[in-house]
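User: For my dataset I need records formatted as: sequence, then structure tokens, nothing else. Please produce one.
Assistant:
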Amino acid sequence: MLPGRKLFSMKRKYSFSKDVDKTFYLRDDVVAIARDLIGTWLFTRTQEGLTGGMIIETEAYAGVQDRASHAYGGRRTKRTEVMYQEGGIAYVYDVKGKFKENCNAEMVDLDNCGLDDKNELFTMIQKHYELTGSTVARFVLDDLNNQLQHFIKVFPKDYKRVLQQQMAVGVKAS
């Protein structure tokens, strides 16, 4: 689930709301996914209030078999490599130490966070605190040096491999 994200559809007689689940986007029919998103309202609730808007346009590319896709025919370049990947890095605040035993690590590495992650974590948690006023975020910010040990870096294996290859040839990751 994407926290704080809700989809609201007004296309049916009765509107509905649901948390956005990854499986919604992983269906085989990308045109159906794009079509289902048209007319959908996407909202995010923050401390400052509710923001949102209606999705009025989408694009869908069916991967390697779609002539309009940059990945057509299985083309893999630096530009298209991301199309073959799962999402990016996630950081989990695991105070109870239970995440690793409850996570399917088949496609991800579960790395300890170090000093190289500290600045990125601080920036993300600071933004979260500013938007939500979270007391947990404030606590973590005030004690980040000690709390860093409770963070797990969830790193998709394919994504990590691509970043390592790029670093080996001197390409700066963005």
